[in-house]
Write a structure and sequence with these properties.
The chain has 1 helix and 44 strands. The protein has about 525 residues and is mostly beta strands. The strands form 4 sheets. A 12-stranded parallel barrel has the order 7-10-14-18-22-26-30-27-23-19-15-11.
Length: about 525
């Protein structure tokens, strides 16, 4: 992996102890509030050295191990019949905690939940893929107690509805399926979340899951579809480390705000008895985000962090996500306000009614390596990327067929920002035959922009030859589709100081690789 010498221009905001977008707090069930920034310049961070890039592999994702729980007690819900698996039997087992499984017969069973289930510390609830918890579109399905560690596995959560009711305890409208308690850890594996709704606001949202401040949320091998909330259509985390691996987010919606699938408000590292926010982590690997919608920004992920928190995205796909309003209208797929590293990932056919068809970047810096931006669209500026004044680096990236309605079909940036573009391809951006790759000059090395245009302001140092790039994505191996090079492409062997592999995980020649995210075998 190429070493990135990142210079981070520090912001002026100060984070003290626990800080979040709209202030923090806790109620009887814990959690923090977050107003959510939208548009303009991003909030700043705290001082300190920039952390080094993480070690990642294009060939697969590390599966986080579940937490070790005290398994002294084991309980089974049901006596072998479907009729024995009812809410009262489940809550009785949950009251005792420990390892809980089900014996409801051989066929799938649905348990109607009419009163929110409370889960104790140290519980491992395993439905083996056969148990559905149904909130009947009237009630939140489950919440974990404060200062707890819980594992939920092999369960389907559907039709949960967290309602905001003034003066009613446990009714802040957060977490339609699950509200994770304050200062708690939650491990979710092989679960499905469908058609859950949260009505909350002021930082209490999360159509499927809400995780209050302090702790972590880990999601493995799970699917989120059709969940809705004002912001954070699927998940909303506040000052909590978030890890999402091998999961799918499809057709979730932020109905009036940001983050159609995921909304983060900072990571978290314990400090002085779980009070601190620096050096947290938001990590996404092996995930697919498709057909998610947001009103304001970031239909797939509103990814906001603080201080030295890191955002790492690897081996993932963002496709056909959509932001519907022009103001603020930021980032069709994702909005980044964090020290960010994005590797081996595809952004394709995302759309924003404002700027940044694939993504909008506020605070950074951000590094993109082996990333393809294909056919993204912004109604205003930056068909692929819209960035502010923070440093941005593109290494072995392919940016092709992106379009913006008002200009800068590929890259649109603020004054004072000069992206570092290395071993990359900018190709056929613009739909009128007059390609406009850049809004402002870039610092290009061993890179190609084609066709050249009088409207471009990319600057010098670019090769202007046809890279013979494929006109459509194809399955060329690897986790995501890619754009292949033609056999006689001038991009072949033109790169230097190369990453060890391409977007698919195929080996590169470290001294003379191909330009772009695809290495021709």
């Amino acid at each position: 992996m190429r070493q990135h010498n990142l210079l981070w221009v520090m912001g002026t905001a100060v984070v003290i102890a626990i800080g979040c977008l709209g202030g923090c707090g806790s109620d009887d069930e814990g959690g923090g509030t977050a107003g959510g920034g939208t548009g303009g310049t991003a909030g700043g961070g705290t001082g300190g050295a920039i952390p080094p890039p993480p070690d990642v592999e294009a060939s697969g994702c590390d599966i986080p191990a579940p937490p070790q729980l005290d398994a002294a007690t084991t309980h089974t819900v049901g006596d072998g019949s479907a009729s024995s698996c009812v809410q009262i039997a489940l809550q009785t087992a949950l009251d005792q905690g420990g390892a809980i499984d089900f014996d409801c017969g051989d066929l799938p069973v649905v348990i109607d939940v009419t009163e929110t289930l409370l889960v104790k510390d140290g519980t491992h609830l395993d439905g083996s893929g056969l148990v559905t918890l149904d909130g009947g579109d009237s009630i939140r399905i489950l919440r974990t107690e404060n200062t707890s560690t819980v594992i939920l596995e092999g369960l389907i959560f559907q039709n949960g509805h967290a309602r905001k009711l003034a003066g009613v305890d446990d009714a802040d409208g957060s977490g339609g399926a699950i509200h994770r308690g304050w200062q708690s850890d939650l491990y979710v594996k092989d679960c499905v979340f469908q058609n859950n709704v949260a009505d909350g606001d002021d930082g209490f949202t999360g159509g499927a899951i809400f995780a209050g401040s302090a702790g972590w949320l880990t999601i493995v091998g799970s699917t989120f579809t059709g969940n809705r909330a004002p912001s954070g259509g699927a998940t909303h985390t506040v000052l909590s480390n978030l890890t999402v691996v091998d999961s799918v987010f499809h057709a979730n919606e932020a109905t009036s705000g940001d983050g159609g699938a995921i909304y983060t408000d900072g990571g978290y590292v314990p400090y002085q008895g779980k009070n601190g926010v620096n050096d947290g982590k938001i990590a996404i690997c092996g995930c697919r985000f498709a057909d998610n919608v947001a009103t304001n920004s970031a239909a797939a992920g509103f990814l906001y962090a603080y201080g030295q928190d890191q955002l790492v995205i690897n081996r993932s796909e963002f496709r056909n996500n959509r932001v519907t309003t022009a103001e603020p209208g930021l980032g069709g797929a994702i909005r980044i306000d964090a020290i960010a590293f994005v590797y081996n990932t595809l952004f394709a056919e995302n759309d924003c009614a404002g700027q940044g068809g694939a993504l909008w970047m506020g605070r950074g810096p951000a590094v993109f390596e082996n990333v393809t931006f294909f056919a993204n669209h912004a109604a205003l500026w930056g068909g692929a990327i819209s960035y502010s004044e923070q440093p941005i680096t593109l290494d072995n990236c392919t940016l092709a067929y992106n379009v913006a309605g008002e200009g800068s079909d590929c890259l649109f940036g603020g004054e004072g920002a000069t992206p570092e573009v290395h071993n990359s391809i900018l190709f056929e951006n613009g739909d009128d035959g007059d390609s406009r790759h850049c809004r402002r000059p870039i610092n290009a090395s061993n890179s190609l922009a084609y066709p050249a245009s009088d409207n471009d302001t990319c600057g010098t140092g670019l090769l202007h030859e046809d890279p013979l790039l494929a006109d459509a994505l194809a399955d060329n191996g690897g986790f995501t589709m890619t754009l292949a090079l033609g056999e006689d492409s001038p991009a072949i062997g033109a790169g230097t100081d190369c990453p060890a592999t391409d977007q698919r995980g195929e080996a590169r020649d470290a001294t003379s690789c191909d330009l772009g995210a695809f290495e021709l075998p």
